[in-house]
Design goal:
The chain has helices spanning about 5-20, 25-30, 35-45, 60, 65-85, 105-115, 125-130, 130-140, 190-210, 235-245, 250-260, 265-280, 300-310, 310-320, 330-350, 355-360, 365-375, 380-390, and strands at about 90-95, 100-105, 145, 160-165, 175-180, 210-215, 220-225, 230, 285, 290, 295-300. It is α+β, with helices and mostly antiparallel strands. It has a five-stranded antiparallel beta sheet with strand order 2-1-5-4-3, sandwiched between helices. A four-stranded mixed beta sheet has the order 8-7-6-11.
């Protein structure tokens, strides 16, 4: 554990580095590379200099119950106890670093309220600069941001520790848990506490998702039920995708139209598919209307939710290939076209070049991302010329 004098010296060193016009290699070596990179991104993000609190979002107007909110029913009291006993603020954020739930000790409550480390606080890096919630989502690793490592002056008297929350079934990041305290109380146990809180939430996720169906429809389709991959036909995958997109359920006629359109396939064929699916899902398939009774998640639903929230980084990470590329379902083809138009629109509005470069590295044919990068990248950079050549191919 660092002594008070060591903490003061450490903070002074960070202050000196922050005041440098540029970070040399020797300077950068004194800090975590993730912090240096975050400072560089924050410096060009057009964050208002007088911003002292995170922008607030009214979650009741824009959010529906999430997987994390269901898990909280099983672990909220445990997390509240940890926050109170440790004299910390505990914040649960979604994949875009927007706080969806908090608990705090009495001595930290006012501090949290002043900087909007409360429900609805938007802690994306492009809005408030370097902070542990955003950094942990960005790096997909544990993060500690100490004192002046924070970009926003109003939180530089705090130390914050964050850990990403991984869905136990899909292995995708669902959000982030962060613990914050006064900078003088910084110690090496902060990250361990954040990791412990993340494990509590992940255990609660398992508890809340006892009957859990996960559908992967990008790239290579796969259906996972209660942690086990099912051996099912492409047609059955299409049926589950349609029902996942229509949680209110569909009549037999409407499901037939969505799946087959004008193709001459009998109702009995569809009934047989539904019967097989019901057996595979242990009865977790309702009828009249047809609907999935298990808790449903899907990579395409998560992508849609990320786009709804304006989280382009999360949406592009989830998009690993064409949605059900071989489907002939008119409903799914129409939905795929809509999703691809939304992704393209989001790409043309994106301002973070690193996100777009990663997308182009995975999908060189993504001409929308190439065009947007050409607009954003300085002409003096060699990559600008490379992108121009790619565009002409």
């Amino acid at each position: 554990m660092m002594t008070e004098q060591n903490l003061i010296l450490h903070r002074q060193k960070i202050d000196q580095l922050r005041q440098s016009s540029s970070l040399s290699l020797s300077h950068a070596a004194q800090l975590e590379q993730s912090i240096v990179s975050s400072w560089q991104r924050s410096s060009v993000a057009h964050i208002p200099k007088d911003r002292l609190a995170a922008p607030l979002l009214d979650l009741k107007k824009v959010r529906s119950p999430s997987t994390l909110s269901h898990a909280l029913q099983y672990c909220a009291e445990n997390l509240k106890h940890i926050a109170e006993q440790s004299s910390m603020v505990l914040a649960l954020g979604d994949v875009g670093s927007t706080v969806v739930w908090t608990a705090s000790s009495p001595e930290m409550r006012k501090v949290a309220e002043n900087v909007h480390l409360i429900e609805g606080g938007q802690w994306r890096e492009e809005l408030v600069g370097t902070n542990a919630l955003a950094l942990s989502i960005k790096t997909q690793q544990s993060s500690c941001v100490f004192s002046s490592e924070h970009y926003m002056p109003s939180v530089q008297d705090m130390a914050c520790y964050a850990e990403p929350i991984i869905d136990p079934y899909s292995k995708h990041i669902l959000g982030v848990i962060a613990l914050s305290t006064e900078w003088q109380k910084h110690n090496s146990f902060g990250l361990l506490a954040a990791e412990r809180c993340a494990s509590i939430i992940q255990s609660a996720l398992l508890e809340s998702q006892r009957q859990h169906l996960y559908i992967r429809a990008f790239s290579v389709p796969q259906v996972i039920f209660n942690g086990k991959a099912l051996t099912i036909t492409p047609r059955q995958t299409e049926i589950l995708a349609i029902l996942a997109l229509c949680p209110q359920g569909l009549s037999l006629d409407n499901l037939h139209q969505a799946l087959y359109g004008e193709r001459k396939v009998s109702m009995d064929t569809l009934k047989a598919e539904m019967s097989q699916l019901r057996d595979l899902l242990g009865g977790m398939l309702g009828s009249r209307p047809y609907r999935i009774l298990a808790h449903v998640e899907a990579d395409f639903l998560q992508t849609e939710q990320s786009l709804d929230a304006g989280y382009i980084d999360s949406a592009l990470k989830l998009y690993t290939g064409v949605f059900l590329a071989k489907t002939e379902s008119p409903f799914l083809c129409a939905w795929r076209n809509c999703l691809e138009l939304r992704l393209s629109d989001a790409i043309f509005k994106a301002n973070e070049t690193d996100i777009l470069l990663k997308h182009v590295a995975r999908f060189p044919e993504a001409i929308d991302a190439v065009k947007r990068l050409i607009e954003l990248m300085p002409k003096s950079q060699s990559v600008h010329q490379i992108l121009l050549k790619v565009q002409k191919l």
